[in-house]
Amino acid sequence: MQNNMFFTFYVLVFFYQLYDERKTLYRAFCAGSIITKERVLTSTHCFLTNRKRRKRNFNLIKIAGGILNTLTPYQPIHVTQQWRTIEHLYSQRFYRFPAYNLAIVKVNKEWVFNEYVNKIPYTKWNQDFDGVCYGTTVKTTKEIEGGGLICFGTNDPAEDVLVGVLVGVTSLINVDLPTLHNRVGLHYKWSVLEENKQYEAYVDICPIRILGGTNAKITDIPYQVALRKKYLAGYIWSTFCGGSLITMKYVVTAAHCLINHTNGKVKKLNNVRVVAGTSRTTVSLISWFEEHWRRIRRFYKHKYYNWTYLEHDFGVIEVNYAFIASNKIKPIRLHDLKTDKVLEDGQQCVISGFGLKEDDKAVVSLQMVCVPLVSSSLCEEYYDEMYLHPSSLCAGSTGKDSCEGDSGGPLVCSGVLVGVVSWGGVCGVHPGVYTKISEYTGGIEVTFEKSSVPRRAMNKFLGIVTIMLLFFENIRFL
């Protein structure tokens, strides 16, 4: 078991504060691995009392990096050490010890990477390993729960030649039995955001073309996808919603596109296809050879999605296998408040979709239009002081708006995905309401409930449809 500085620079130790007069006495109880500047991968049970659902007091927990000796009970001040507190904890929804025993901790301050504190690459692929592996230990010479299992010779693209790759997190230790680790590779969807951040922002189309609504080329908006539903035993496929490609295998859309509002259940995903590389609303002989069709493997709706109150109308689709990149199929980067421009009222943004025109006429090809962002206060005036959730934003002007059938489609500002088409009033009269992407980029991979094919409904319907329709007579779901 390796235990020198070379194999511990990415290891963190979790300390629990003991009750002494100076409040500086700590006891090590778990470990973790740095995977980004502000995120740590560890075990869920480390933060639960007796491995049950009651959480520990986070205010009494500190995370230390650059620790080579945990035998010293007091918090030492040393040049090698960095101490942090917990800002957020993201755990697996399906956690049942020792299964799904993985958690991500967001620290209050970014780690400063140096020779003592750094991140470890982690596997992003669901595969078996034949390499040589090492567990993480501390000076007590005992393997510690929450620590990483690092392997070499795995053939994983993420593996570092010198450091190896993180393939497991210690879950259960038994003196007489092999140590049980949870495989990081089985939870690789946590890497969706990392992959998405690699994409460059698109050229802003609005300053180039002042649009009142026109046909769009799919090469201008290659991130746009269509959701199509099967009718008449598959003889007819009709576009009913849109979406945005954020990686070659994941699509962002509106949750209500795939939720049945009469009973709150997820629709039959077997009857839905995700189509990329197309600018047409219907299937033709020509488009059949140009389009790329995929089945839905899983649908992740936001766990706080509430159709009754129009909140968190956001979901992620995982297709059965990745799309092939081309000039007609490219992902779009998600808006991130840390790295992208702050949104301003009146800023021109692009919306696109396959929905109705303002005269309620159907379209035969993809449409796009530039619309200004509208302040929340002004938007609430349009909707008679109706409360808008902080996860929503408004955009649109007279004659320029999204409409029925555009739901789930993109709102793009300065070349990045800012919003998802959600709902609105009269088309072209009231501003459209969009789900704000930046509200979710902090934890898109761990704040969603999963539905597979086949699957069971994840939530009961939360509201009374009849009352909502009477109260919001002019509200449309796009």
Automatic annotation (TrEMBL):
PROSITE patterns: TRYPSIN_DOM, TRYPSIN_HIS, TRYPSIN_SER. Fibrinolytic activity; shows preferential cleavage of Arg-Gly bonds in all three fibrinogen chains. Contact with the caterpillars causes severe bleeding, due the anticoagulant effect of the protein. GO terms for molecular function: serine-type endopeptidase activity; toxin activity. This is Peptidase S1 domain-containing protein. GO terms for cellular component: extracellular space. Residues 210-449 form the Peptidase S1 domain. It is found in: Secreted, Extracellular space. InterPro entries: Peptidase_S1_PA, Peptidase_S1_PA_chymotrypsin, Peptidase_S1A, Serine_Proteases_S1, Trypsin_dom, TRYPSIN_HIS, TRYPSIN_SER. Keywords: Disulfide bond, Fibrinolytic toxin, Hemostasis impairing toxin, Hydrolase, Protease, Secreted, Serine protease, Toxin. GO terms for biological process: proteolysis. It comes from Brenthis ino.
